[in-house]
Design a protein that fits this description.
Layout lengths: L11 E5 L28 H14 L4 E5 L9 H9 L6 E6 L4 H11 L3 E5 L5 H8 L4 H13 L6 E5 L9 H11 L2 E5 L18 H9 L4 E3 L11 E5 L5 E5 L12 E4 L4 E3 L8 E2 L1 H5 L4 H13 L19 H4 L2
Parallel strand pairs: 1-2, 1-10, 2-3, 3-4, 4-5, 5-6, 6-9
Antiparallel strand pairs: 7-8, 8-9, 10-11, 11-12
Helix pairs in contact: 1-2, 1-9, 2-3, 3-5
The structure holds S-adenosylmethionine.
S-adenosylmethionine (SAM) binds next to β3, β5 and α10.
């Protein structure tokens, strides 16, 4: 098992399949994009599947989430999902995506074994979408969402980040839209993970503000039916249910004590936390012909060294060198 010295067990593996993205969300990267990883440094599909297999067969991984960058940019995504679905014990398989191109691929991904999906959608206003992402693709995202639901990937979850003076007035409209489409909405507090290092605590839209803005139009009550466990979102019943909304207060309401996640970057590095200052290199081991046991040992050591918390609220906090797009959100 992947245990750390604070008694937590990592069972949820987040796999970044690429650091590239076709959007330029302001809270993530600059409009001009970033210097992407050179292709030879990115794990091949077979390499990803081998590491996932070691995680599942030898290290107790029970849930695998593919992310990025934008994972739909990987042409071999369905093959990677299918190979993961063939592992024993079969892990739960999910995908975090911006939804662009999902309308053409949702059914094939479902058939390959994808169980669940999270689609990022921060606004329903085309002009705000353009400002926030620097691309005019809102209709593609909405089409992707509809295709995911039609393919049986329900309940489709939506991730939304609110930014001051851009879309911070849109929480109720987003919730109304999601309820009417049977999507489950979760707001994520903006974290200091942008490549531009422009995050400011004073400008961040907090979980408390989101709650207040929703409460003006909806009645939110504690979701007693669903235990939170290691889930990052606190969920609430909307107007008595069954509709729900989640708030991920990663900065103001940290949940590190219950964290069960470990991350594999697109270039084969293990990160024991989004905010880790160091990584463990599995790619070099993998490419030097190391046996599974040696790779598993390095992976175990990486998780064992996990710190008790992300430290964002400590005076000594330093933002990690890699931005969210290169870590895998
Ligand atoms: N491209 C995919 C997508 O858009 O969902 C997957 C990768 S993206 C990094 C994963 C999630 O991280 C998205 O929901 C995005 O909104 C969120 N995210 C990115 N940067 C963030 C930040 N600085 N703070 C909070 N969430 C962030």
């Amino acid at each position: 098992m992947l245990t750390d010295s604070y008694g937590r067990v990592a069972t949820d593996l987040r796999v970044s399949l690429t650091d590239r993205c076709n959007l330029r969300c302001a809270y993530c990267m600059p409009p001009e994009g970033l210097d992407w990883l050179p292709t030879p440094e990115v794990l091949t599909g077979d390499e990803v599947v081998r590491l996932v297999r070691i995680g599942v067969e030898s290290l107790g991984i029970r849930e695998v989430r593919f992310t990025g960058g934008e994972p739909l940019l990987r042409r071999d995504l369905a093959e990677i999902v299918a190979a993961t679905a063939g592992l024993s014990p079969r892990p739960e398989i999910s995908l975090t995506t911006n939804g662009i191109g999902l309308d053409r691929r949702a059914a094939a991904l479902r058939a390959a074994g994808l169980d669940r999906i999270n689609v990022s959608l921060d606004t329903l206003r085309p002009e705000v979408f353009r400002k926030l992402t620097h691309r005019d693709r809102l209709d593609d995202v909405l089409a992707g969402l509809a295709a995911a639901a039609a393919a049986g990937l329900s309940p489709v979850k939506i991730n939304a980040v609110l930014m001051r003076d851009l879309n911070d007035d849109e929480a109720p409209q987003l919730l109304r839209y999601c309820i009417s489409h049977w999507y489950e909405l979760r707001f994520i507090e903006q974290m200091p993970l942008d490549a531009q290092h422009g995050w400011k605590r004073t400008e961040m839209v907090t979980a408390a503000e989101i709650f207040e803005s929703l409460s003006a139009q909806f009645s939110l009550s504690d979701d007693t039916e669903r235990s939170r466990g290691a889930a990052p979102a606190e969920t609430f019943l909307v107007d008595g249910g069954p509709a729900r909304v989640g708030v991920i207060g990663a900065v103001t309401r940290p949940f590190c004590g219950a964290c069960d996640r470990v991350r594999l970057t697109a270039d084969g590095q293990i990160r024991n936390c989004l905010f880790a200052r160091s990584e463990s290199d599995l790619r070099t081991l993998l490419r030097s012909g190391a046996p599974d046991s040696e790779i598993a040992e390095r992976w175990r050591a990486a998780v064992a060294a996990k710190l008790p918390g992300h430290g964002i609220n400590d005076p000594t906090f330093l933002q990690p060198d890699r931005p969210m797009s290169a870590i895998g959100g």
